[in-house]
């Protein structure tokens, strides 16, 4: 297993645009390794409160002694789509969501998120619930696999890859990340730095964890939970997630909410050249911040 330190993305930009009220109540919906939470607490005054949320039960082991000793901080182990089960309407001054997975999760071969090292094909953010990537890839119908690869992976060879998977799994079940990566490589020759399996792994991870549905649910909840002029900051890492966020802030694709939001900091914010140089994984990050209209 590769051991790397996870670097929180665009910390200064988040602090600048999210913390409109430094004695307010905030939720870091994707606690991860705690990078954003630690920085937010340093900016909040003694009256402020911060709640960290994460569906990955292993994050409790990443809470530093400093955070544990800070009575302004509490950790909630739950899906952020269930945020409305933990907070009252009009009670929050800010919500932060850093989408995707952390470097510590990505680099842990036992979690199955990456093809860089061989490991079990799991991909669940919470390994105690739901179906694993292995279960899905070996049982889903070919049409469903095609759809996931096309819609969530934006993969042009979705049909070809899905067919080879379904034809081959009868004799040889797909059990490891290497099994899946090899299948993709048999369909798409490698050209350039990007591995051909990148889109496929992302699509399966997003499907297994229902990430788009979770995102849509927290956006709807934010309309109720945020105070007037409360802010929501969302960091996404590819166009599918960012499009959902952008359209929601524009008042489109709503389920029930008609709440209006005003953009903060421009249409979107990208990491600085200095940050990208220090943390190459930040290069695709997009931060959007919006304020609930009074």
Structural key phrases:
294 residues; alpha/beta; Rossmann fold; DNA polymerase, domain 1; 12 helices; 7 strands; globular
What do these coordinates show?
This protein is an alpha/beta fold. The protein folds into two domains: 11-104 and 211-292, Rossmann fold, CATH 3.40.50.150; 126-208, DNA polymerase, domain 1. 37% of the residues lie in helices and 17% in strands. It is built from twelve helices and seven strands. The protein has helices at residues 11-18, 35-43, 65-69, 103-106, 133-139, 142-151, 158-168, 177-187, 198-208, 211-225, 239-249, 273-278; strands at 25-28, 49-54, 73-77, 92-98, 226-236, 261-269, 286-292. Strands 3-2-1-4-5-7-6 form a seven-stranded mixed β-sheet. The termini are far apart. The model has no long low-confidence stretch (mean pLDDT 92).
Unreliable parts: none
Report the radius of gyration as a whole number of Å.
20 Å
What fraction, in percent, of the residue positions are helical? Answer: 25-40%
Described by the principal axes of the CA atoms, the overall outline is globular
**CATH superfamily of the largest domain, please?**
Vaccinia Virus protein VP39
How would you describe the oligomerization state of the chains in this entry? single chain
Q: Output the number of helix runs.
A: 12
Write the SSE topology:
Blueprint: H1 11-18, E1 25-28, H2 35-43, E2 49-54, H3 65-69, E3 73-77, E4 92-98, H4 103-106, H5 133-139, H6 142-151, H7 158-168, H8 177-187, H9 198-208, H10 211-225, E5 226-236, H11 239-249, E6 261-269, H12 273-278, E7 286-292
Parallel strand pairs: 1-2, 1-4, 2-3, 4-5
Antiparallel strand pairs: 5-7, 6-7
Helix pairs in contact: 6-7, 6-9, 7-8, 10-11
């Amino acid at each position: 297993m590769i051991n790397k330190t996870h670097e929180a993305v665009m910390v200064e930009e988040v602090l600048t645009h999210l913390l409109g009220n430094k004695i307010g109540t905030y939720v870091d919906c994707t606690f991860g390794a705690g990078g954003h939470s630690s920085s937010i607490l340093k900016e909040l005054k003694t009256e402020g409160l911060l709640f960290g949320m994460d569906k990955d039960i292993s994050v409790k082991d990443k809470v530093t002694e400093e955070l544990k000793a800070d009575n302004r901080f509490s950790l909630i182990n739950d899906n952020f789509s269930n945020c409305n089960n933990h907070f009252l309407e009009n009670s929050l001054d800010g919500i932060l969501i850093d989408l995707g997975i952390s470097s510590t999760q990505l680099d842990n071969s036992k979690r199955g998120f990456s093809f860089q090292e061989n490991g079990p094909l799991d991909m669940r953010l919470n390994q105690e619930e739901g179906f694993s990537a292995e279960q899905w890839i070996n049982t889903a119908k070919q049409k469903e696999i095609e759809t996931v690869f096309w819609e969530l992976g934006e993969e042009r060879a979705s049909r070809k890859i899905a067919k080879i998977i379904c034809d081959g799994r009868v004799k040889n079940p797909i059990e490891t990340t290497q099994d899946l990566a090899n299948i993709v490589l048999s369909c798409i020759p490698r050209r350039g730095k990007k591995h051909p399996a990148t889109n496929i792994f992302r699509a399966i991870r997003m499907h297994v964890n229902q990430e788009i549905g979770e995102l849509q649910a927290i956006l709807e909840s934010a309309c109720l939970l945020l105070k007037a002029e409360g802010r929501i900051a969302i960091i996404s890492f590819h166009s599918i997630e960012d499009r959902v966020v952008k359209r929601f802030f524009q008042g489109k694709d709503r389920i029930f909410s008609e709440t209006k939001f005003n953009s903060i900091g421009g249409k979107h914010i990208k990491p600085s050249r200095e940050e990208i140089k220090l943390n190459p994984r930040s290069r695709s990050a997009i931060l959007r911040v919006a304020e609930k209209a009074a």
